[in-house]
From TrEMBL:
Binding-site residues, ATP: 29-36, 285
Protein name: ATP-dependent DNA helicase Rep
Gene name of the record: rep
Catalytic activity: Couples ATP hydrolysis with the unwinding of duplex DNA by translocating in the 3'-5' direction; ATP + H2O = ADP + phosphate + H(+)
Stated family: Belongs to the helicase family. UvrD subfamily.
GO cellular component, one term: cytosol
């Protein structure tokens, strides 16, 4: 299909949004109105009609899943070379690419590591424990604070001078040390992926010019969820030219808790007075009933922009609300319904999605799905290779085959605890950077002894000798036996017990480590598939480990493949996606809206979250809840979510509702909501 043919399939407003390329453009519209479609078509339009090289175009969105979907949609339009060099990624991947291209300007060396939140927490723990014993809560709080600072573009110096009280002072000091140590480790954390590029582009005119030359046109999906630093990144990259298209929906802003600023939609108009705002009103996704439910629900929130959405998809089925005895019955119900519905509706597994508020809700559901042998894909859960203990064990294996693997070194130099402190590591890292050698090699150098206390040097060399000893045994005899012995010798198990909240958890983690080593053994004795020989060969431990590392990566990619499976995901992760049949679980007070949100008064964000969930559905929507649920180890009675009261009663079909709720209670709750709204609107 040519781009012209594609264009005429869009409605006039969408076409306008695609064709307008001379200045900044904002498409503001409700769910399912074809915002993402505007972005994908516009990319093809820029390349095929305007002759822009795909290399010069960057489209960004929020989740990996959404980026993948977008890539797929664009891939169908741009064939072969046309799409070469096109960037369709998350904000963070774009940031990562900028960092990769600007290592020198940023003062990093190649092979820098990306600290995941767990790695970052471990570093913070070390830093904070230096002064006094701190608990997990304190560490989490400081980690959260540092993250908000980074998202708001507040650097350590500013944090320190603006600190309003002792707690903030303290956090700011930890922030400063944290940044310094990350740098010494040649590492960046997740928030740095945006922060570092923004700071670089702000302070380095040459780098700015380089990137402005590189990116001519930017498209941003889910713009309502950008935070301050992401907004600045777009602004810096585009500059005066302001050749960008952003699309968003203020009603779908659900990341305020992570620093998102929906008011960026308004700011955009102020920063770019030439901004052309285009509104879309036709929904192409959902049935009339589903759309009406979504519109009615969200009309309970105050609005900056008024939007009306209509659909030509027909009224469709009523929305079912299924009340279950308890959470297990709820999970059972969802699983068994999917099983029968698939046949009744002649649907595929992938046509079903089950959405919930928190990942913990998926556990029971997984068991039920497994029971019925329903293939499913859990997004955001912890896969084998992303478990902490597996990452530790993999790091040992990687270091054994490549002592220059600095990431592996840093991960395990202190696991189990070897009393090698952050200051020692910082000095070691500086020493290694100056000489351009690996950390492992640096430990052996005599020069290091001049910069570190004797005890620190001893501890480091004990570690080095330990690893070299294992390596030696591997070379001389049975490599696997040597690896197993290593795990026992260093008493990793005891360390797990010290760090787990319950002994059973530590036990399971240790079992995972042995499973990994068994896998390694299998991998060494595998049938060689890719050689002509049919004999079973014993492979070298090196290549077996490399294969495991590769499998780790592949597994992450397989996670991302879209084979025919029921999708299980949080409402947060479901943004931008659509499914013919959607189940929304746990419509209960304290779960949706979440209890924390009720406490701190952010029910409106929860309402938007429910709006996002509901608008994922194309044909059928089923809402489920439980009358009782285990929370904090106790069986608690649950109250149906207030959001159910806010849906149009005539469109709902209840099942299993016992007595109707006490009308007085219902009214009282309604009043609360109205009062809250009034105060918000001032
Ligand atoms: P969300 O707010 O949930 O991200 P969106 O506004 O990005 O939604 P899209 O995902 O682009 O909406 O579109 C929703 C559905 O409507 C998709 O299946 C898309 O293919 C279809 N669609 C979009 N525009 C049109 C159109 N003009 N004609 C027919 N179908 C369309
Ligand atoms: Mg979209």
């Amino acid at each position: 299909m040519s781009i012209q043919q594609r264009l005429v399939r869009l409605n006039p407003r969408q076409q306008e949004a695609v064709r307008y390329i001379d200045g900044p453009c904002l498409v503001l519209a409700g769910a399912g109105s074809g915002k993402t479609s505007v972005i994908t078509t516009k990319i093809a339009y820029l390349v095929q009609e305007c002759g822009m090289s795909a290399r010069r175009i960057a489209a960004v969105t929020f989740t990996n899943k959404a980026a993948r979907e977008m890539k797929e949609r664009v891939g169908q339009m741009l064939k072969g070379k046309q799409g070469h060099g096109l960037t369709v990624s998350t904000f963070h991947t774009l940031g990562l690419n900028i960092i990769r291209g600007e290592l020198k300007a940023l003062g990093y060396k190649p092979g820098f590591s990306l600290f995941d939140p767990e790695d970052a927490k471990a570093l913070l723990r070390d830093l904070m424990n230096k002064d006094a014993q701190v608990d997990a809560d304190q560490i989490n709080r400081v980690q959260g604070q540092i993250s908000s600072w980074k998202n708001d573009l507040v650097l350590p110096g500013q944090a320190l001078s603006h600190a309003a009280n002792d707690d903030e002072q303290y956090a700011a000091r930890v922030y400063e040390a944290y940044v310094r140590h990350l740098k010494a480790y040649n590492a960046v954390d997740f928030d740095d992926l945006i922060l570092l590029p923004v700071v670089l582009l702000r302070d380095d005119p040459e780098a700015l010019a380089r990137w402005r030359r590189k990116i001519h046109y930017m498209l941003v999906d889910e713009y309502q969820d950008t935070n301050v630093s992401q907004y600045r990144l777009v602004q810096m990259l585009m500059g005066e030219r302001a050749t960008f298209t952003v699309v968003g929906d203020d009603d779908q802003s659900i990341y305020a808790w992570r620093g998102a600023r929906p008011e960026n939609l308004v700011t955009l108009g102020e920063d770019f007075p030439r901004l052309r705002v285009i509104k879309l009103e036709q929904n192409y996704r959902s049935t009339g009933t589903i759309l009406r439910a979504a519109n009615t629900l969200i009309s309970n929130n105050p609005h900056v922009y008024d939007k009306t959405l209509w659909s030509e998809m027909g009224q469709g089925e009523a929305i079912r609300v299924v009340v279950n005895r308890h959470e297990e019955a709820e999970a059972e119900r969802v699983a068994s319904e999917i099983l029968t519905r698939r046949i009744k509706e002649r649907a595929e597994w992938r046509d079903f999605a089950v959405l919930y508020r928190g990942n913990f809700q998926a556990r029971l559901l997984e068991l039920k799905l497994q029971h019925y042998q329903i293939p499913y894909k859990l997004s955001g859960g912890t896969s084998f290779f992303s478990r902490g203990e597996i990452k530790d064990a993999m790091a040992y294996l990687r270091l054994l085959i490549n002592p220059a693997d600095d990431n592996a070194f840093l991960r395990i130099v202190n696991i189990p605890r070897r009393e090698i402190g952050p200051t020692t590591l910082e000095k070691l890292a500086n020493y290694a950077t100056e000489r351009e050698i690996a950390l492992f090699a640096a430990c052996r150098e005599l020069g290091l002894a001049e910069q570190l206390p004797t005890r620190a040097v001893e501890r480091l060399s004990r570690f080095i000798h330990f690893i070299e000893g294992v390596r030696d045994r591997m070379d001389r005899g049975d490599a696997l036996a040597a690896i197993r012995e290593m795990m026992r010798e260093m008493d990793y198990e005891a360390w797990l017990y010290q760090n787990a909240s319950a002994p059973t958890i530590a036990e399971r983690r240790m079992a995972n480590v042995w499973t990994l080593i068994d896998q390694l053994e299998k991998s060494m004795n595998r049938e060689p598939e890719d050689t002509a020989s049919t004999d079973t060969e014993t492979d070298s431990v090196e290549s077996a480990i490399s294969r495991l590392v590769l499998r780790d990566i592949l597994e992450q990619q397989a996670e991302e493949d879209d084979s025919d499976r029921v999708q299980l995901l949080t409402m947060h992760a479901s943004k931008g996606l659509e499914f013919p049949h959607v189940y929304l679980m746990g419509l209960e007070e304290e779960l949706l809206p979440h209890r924390n949100a009720i406490e701190v008064g952010t029910v409106e964000e929860e309402r938007r979250l429910a709006y996002v969930g509901i608008t994922r559905a194309r044909r059928t929507l089923t809402l489920t809840l439980a009358r009782q649920r285990k929370a904090y180890g106790e069986l608690m009675d649950c109250t149906p979510s207030r959001f159910l009261d806010e849906l149009p009663d005539a469109d709902l079909e209840w099942e299993g509702r016992a007595d109707k709720e006490d009308p007085e209670k219902k009214q009282a709750r309604g009043k609360d909501a109205i009062a809250g709204l009034r105060s918000l609107l001032g």
